[in-house]
């Protein structure tokens, strides 16, 4: 069953997302291998019907008139009837396929000079392969659907549980779900075998999180557990219409004249599983495609790479060339047709196509004739070849790269789409989250401030880095005897450890501080209830760290029920004594990214009512009671100091409540909770009524260390010409220090800071006039942007150019993104090498990404690990998800996923760069060979009076792309390698060639086109001219089909050998593919010309190859024509390499004598039978040790001597033709 769900999850049909650390927003694109593309819209509820839904529980007859949808689901794209029409429609949405369909239709008309098979066969092969792929993927979806739909579930019928398949489930049914079972539909939770009506669920199929979540049934329904009792349940549910919002639900349960409000705490979603509970009983609310998780499965357009869009322009250019060639032929035909040319016999009745009395009709019909004749100029197999190459690159190279495999978490890299491989080789801007992306997301309680007193003696990595920058050295300090270091807690201060806080001047404040940590949370305890063995299941690592801190301070939270929290507290007065205290939890005001705080209202055993609140300092300070200015000031200073140390901070506060105040407020809370409309908004408004006049207790400081290898990775990417922006919700001080620690910012940079945390802005904020605050901050941001722009322009004139960095907070960014200031922000940002945006919301992250993507037209990449990064990931050209501790939200929205930020250097500089280089060569080579082949036919047209006579046999034209030149170009796209992976990272400046698009410019296309024209002239005129004096063995001169077969043989040989010249590295697969393609032509022509059929077109080629090979003409032509044709390419490549080398060619020459054992052949097979270390060792032992032989190094020149010598610190005088001087103006590689 679990495996079935895993397969179903991979199909992209059951995903959802959790808010993690209060993260939300954005559309989440889901791409699973072999599945359709899906999306999840976070925080956006789909439009609902104006009325609510009424469900009669345990009463199928009453629900029958409504005709609720069944519980059967289908994730297939097609069925038996729609497969062909819908599948063909999808294929013909591609312009190239539509073009060849039109050509195939034209080839069936009398004006076509070629047999229909010439165009129908290639088109049919392409369509067949594509449709088989679609059918196979859809068949897998169908099998998964059948497994899911036929899973059994217990349904209440006639006072007993009956097992039926999921597909037969109906709305209103009462069902039982056992432990570890999956919920078959969206259920109203009625009863549980656990005490107090609670159950534990795992939502990994929705958001990837494995931490358990608690759900609580209404107390009124706890008794409906046994079938006899459950049969008596006849409630009526009024709830919202089906929608796709995973984390909201509004409804009421009407039972025995009582109206009870329902919330997400009573909702069990399809796809979740039951844990640590024997079984639960629930009532079906939403079924099948109306369940929330299924409504999140929506088709969206997939991303297209920049190279693919440029390819469209090249195809359009080829259309233009084709049209131009046809127009020339049409005009020539209209001029050539002349009744005076008696040998044409045009005096009698002739076809309209050759009627000299109507030259316009002749020209038009000839144009259509030539359109079919020259159709091969558009490479029909190009798209199929590119898709195949990209797919293998993703599945075999990226997914199985050991250098992007994380042993600790057993996580390999994963390409969730193969559409964007080459886009990885052209990224210029990276937008990165901080927590969990640059840092480890392993939170440790490190320091705190209580009642104005700072505690904690540790020194963070950031503090050490800052001291090093200032030339100071921080000595290592030995931990005290009271220090404790465990997961989530790394704190040392004898003043408050092991009960010493009782001796402080503020023990009551310490007590409130620790109780707030132990009570104000949503953590679930698991396992042994001893302090040493207990496991805390938390929604975020921060919360787990805070509860762990409370435990180590003597306030041990060990049990939770829906209404109670049990804490084992150290005795307040007596050292060493403990007491178990139960706190009644009356209300929980949950944390989200808008509120930025969480509150709990609890009742002490003595009846005391207290509200505990924790949240961001900006939010808490706005809600503090007047007075205590000294503590506020000191705590703010401590917050800034913690931020400067790179620590994450939270403020803690509390408020005493009277019974009267709480009673009146709770009535409003219940009323808001029962509302069917705008429930979340009303709950937030009610929370504002009580979350005020808080008393500040102190603040916490949690350390999140940098991931391994982040600083060096960022430095490498910067050298590659990539600009990195950090977008985080943390404080400015924390963000700046993390940026320093990871080499994003350094002291040599000129820094521009735009902050709302200035004394002037604080003074305005103290007045409380929101309109005045907004106006003043907007004007301040405008002034700062103009000032920074002026300074940036002056700095750009410096020699050498000063590097710059911009730091801006979320409040200022909100105004800077307005339409009148957006342009100034963009200009300033693009001038900077690094940008740090702090205190930003998920929406602002996406807005900043879109600003650079659309405003600057640069290729962008976003990388993050949580739900608040989803919108940013989708806004960029390429989205990369970190599979970290925050669930799989970012991964499921991403195009590529990796386990560590440092793997980004391999993904971009190695795989991305190689993919870009290879695909550029594949596309330009396709362009070259098809243009060359078509132009030989074009030159022949001039000697046939523009009549449309074909030069090649129909089968030659049909199989040229799909057989005789198909495999070598795929091998080129898979195995070509200019430099090794290690050299790609050693010389990251090589990546600049991709950013500048050096290999797919119009200049490059123009060079290929020039040599296509040159070679086509050689093929046609050399073979035809050489044949004029040639005689076969019977003494006859060579005819048209002899010459065309000879020319086609030269084209096939030359095109394949030309590909070898383009390869930077040649393996046995290159030899096999090129040799096999040439051999396939000879095998085909030997068989084809040896067969005689009744078809007239077959007679043309009968015995041609045997006649040709019996003459010296064949062998001389086969030897000399390809040599002469390739001489121009050979000369050009030699001169280009000598006098204007690319950067990678210089690196090749530097390391030409080094052996290259290709590490990129290291593949990883992740199995369940081996430990990660064993799997790695086994994979390495199985690696093929094939040596790659670099080619193209024959163009040695004395001019390289000084370049090589400088690499080894040896002086050599420059020569007049020294290419090093030319290269030095184009690259800084030699300095690396």
From TrEMBL:
Residues 55-119 form the P-type ATPase N-terminal domain. Its EC number is 7.6.2.1. The keyword ATP-binding applies. It catalyses: ATP + H2O + phospholipidSide 1 = ADP + phosphate + phospholipidSide 2. ATP binds at residues 433-435, 543, 591, 614, 648, 728-730, 839, 845, 868-869. InterPro entries: ATPase_P-typ_cyto_dom_N (IPR023299), ATPase_P-typ_P_site (IPR018303), ATPase_P-typ_TM_dom_sf (IPR023298), ATPase_P-typ_transduc_dom_A_sf (IPR008250), HAD-like_sf (IPR036412), HAD_sf (IPR023214), P-type_ATPase_IV (IPR006539), P-type_ATPase_N (IPR032631). GO terms for biological process: Golgi vesicle budding; phospholipid translocation. The chain crosses the membrane at residues 314-339, 359-384, 922-940, 955-975, 1004-1022, 1037-1057, 1069-1091, 1103-1127. GO terms for cellular component: endoplasmic reticulum; Golgi membrane; plasma membrane; trans-Golgi network. It is a multi-pass membrane protein. SUPFAM superfamilies: Calcium ATPase, transduction domain A (SSF81653), Calcium ATPase, transmembrane domain M (SSF81665), HAD-like (SSF56784), Metal cation-transporting ATPase, ATP-binding domain N (SSF81660). Belongs to the cation transport ATPase (P-type) (TC 3.A.3) family. Type IV subfamily. This is Phospholipid-transporting ATPase. It comes from Zostera marina.
